[in-house]
Design a protein that fits this description.
Helix content: 55-70%
Strand content: 5-15%
Number of domains: 2
Radius of gyration: 26 Å
Distance between the termini: 92 Å
Order of helices and strands: HHHHHHHHHHHHHHHHHEHEHEEE
Number of strands: 5
Number of helices: 19
Strand order of the largest sheet: 2-1-3-5-4
Structural class: mainly alpha
Length: 489
């Protein structure tokens, strides 16, 4: 069978695309694994470990998220629970969940870009992900629910694109599953779900879509509602109690820059790309097109949260940069779509690709370098103290105690996570670890003195300690920021 030159050329281009797609994706996954090897967990990540560690059962975990941790959603912790109890106690093992979710999200976004815009847009998504400090270090290499939210958003957008083009029962099922991932990941995922749901409802009202288009929204919303109601009934946590300060107007461009890895060139490129996509949407009055949705999502969510946090909230606001990871997939797709459009124009005007790529390529290389540097620069505030204790052979010594100080209820989980992961599961199985919020530690040290304890290790910020007794002498360690030793006089 003979092929025409055009078909043969198209097949060759497609083969090259999938080779590049697979190669870049493998590099991205390898890059994240490389970063996970150097990773150390910080405060909030240690709290996540505390939620799932030790003898914690699934019902206890769910109860925690219904009460003390009701401002967050439980699915990430539920997925992490078996990994923590089955796999070795290494940071990269626990981070495998976030790595897989981030790579999966990138696959969905790239497939979305290819289907809607073209091969260049698809490759651009992967390249931007590799070079993004936010995607790599704040999503893929954090033991927190942001990777799940990022995955849920990408999965949902891709399935809605397929459902928008053609509705069948399989797409309804997978769209519903994607939305459940999104709803149970993070409350900003819930906010995005609400925005997309309102858009879908308008399509139905205006008779641009059948009522069946709303089915995934209805099913997933109904399944999420009981959890939401239970959290309102069982917790005292309120958005007005949040610690986040009111935002200023200049915080908005700073947020965009944060989401794009702190790269000023990409931040400016996003602004240009947003306008380039907006112009044809307005000219052609495509108010309910895919592009209109991608353009509207960042504006509505960031704008809505800004207004609420600055003008409506009676206490703390919700305007925190990392929460807006929910809109990053839409921002990446806007950039990728504009890049594809620019490259297409380059067929007639060859200077356009040069103008587009000349600033972008160095900017992406610079971002990639900063991402790698950020990966390997870790504070070691958690592992250095535990390494010192284990190296001294004191973890299993009956005459030694370890105290982990915390400041609040979530700090209790952080302290428990540190004790279990960095002490007990690193070899100090019989270590006697005590947890307290009392910076003076009077009662504990009275007990230790009566028991004849010769040494006490205290894991806490050193300026938080307020021990004034004379039974033990305080010894500072220069090479650890958060470990203090008290030896019996």
């Amino acid at each position: 069978m003979k092929f025409s030159p055009d078909k043969s050329d198209a097949k060759k281009k497609n083969t090259w695309f999938w080779c590049a797609f697979a190669g870049l994706l493998a590099f991205f996954a390898g890059f994240l694994v490389y970063g996970s090897m150097a990773k150390e967990f910080w405060y909030d990540e240690m709290a996540m470990v505390g939620f799932v560690c030790g003898d914690t059962t699934i019902p206890e975990l769910l109860h925690t998220y219904l009460t003390k941790e009701a401002s967050n959603l439980p699915l990430y912790a539920l997925l992490l629970w078996p990994i923590y109890h089955i796999m070795p106690a290494r940071e990269y093992c626990l981070l495998s969940l976030s790595v897989l979710l981030t790579v999966g999200a990138t696959v969905f976004l790239s497939l979305f870009a290819k289907k809607r815009y073209g091969r260049i847009a698809a490759i651009a998504i992967i390249v931007m992900s590799i070079c993004s400090k936010t995607v790599c270090n704040r999503i893929g290499l954090e033991l927190r629910a942001y990777s799940l939210m990022y995955f849920g958003v990408a999965f949902t957008l891709y399935m809605l694109l397929l459902l928008h083009e053609k509705a069948d029962k399989h797409r309804y099922v997978f769209t519903t599953i994607a939305m459940l991932f999104l709803l149970f990941s993070h409350y900003f995922g819930v906010l995005l779900f609400a925005v997309l749901g309102v858009g879908a409802l308008l399509l139905v009202i205006l008779r641009k879509k059948k009522f069946s288009y709303l089915v995934p929204f209805l099913i997933s919303g109904v399944l999420f509602t009981p959890w939401f109601v239970l959290t309102r009934l069982m917790t005292d946590v309120s958005a007005s109690d949040f610690w986040i300060p009111r935002p200023a107007f200049m915080d908005v461009p700073k947020t965009v820059a944060y989401l794009l890895g702190g790269n000023p060139v990409l931040t400016a490129a996003f602004g240009i790309a947003w306008i380039c996509l907006l112009v044809p949407v307005v000219k052609e009055k495509r108010w309910f097109s895919v592009e209109a949705v991608l353009l509207a999502v960042p504006v509505l969510i960031m704008g809505g949260i800004f207004v609420y946090s600055r003008y409506l909230s009676s206490g703390g606001g919700l305007y925190e940069n990392r929460y807006f990871i929910a809109v990053l997939p839409a921002m990446f797709l806007v950039l990728a779509a504009a890049l594809e459009k620019g490259m297409a124009l380059g067929k007639k005007r060859r200077w356009i690709p040069v103008v587009v790529l000349l600033p972008l390529v160095p900017a992406l290389l610079w971002s990639g370098h900063r991402t790698r540097v950020d990966m390997v620069c870790q504070m070691r505030d958690a592992s250095d103290p535990s390494y010192y204790i284990l190296q001294q052979g004191d973890a299993d010594d009956a005459d030694v105690r370890i105290v982990a100080l915390s400041y609040d209820s979530i700090g209790d989980y952080r302290a428990a996570g540190w004790g279990d992961f960095y002490i007990k599961r690193q070899g100090g199985i019989s270590a006697q670890i005590h947890y307290t919020r009392d910076p003076s530690m009077e009662e504990l040290f009275e007990i230790y003195a009566a028991e004849g304890v010769r040494r006490v290790y205290v894991m806490a910020d050193k300026d938080f300690l307020d021990y004034r007794d004379q039974d033990y002498e305080r010894i500072e360690l220069d090479d650890t920021r958060r470990l203090t030793i008290f030896d019996r006089r």
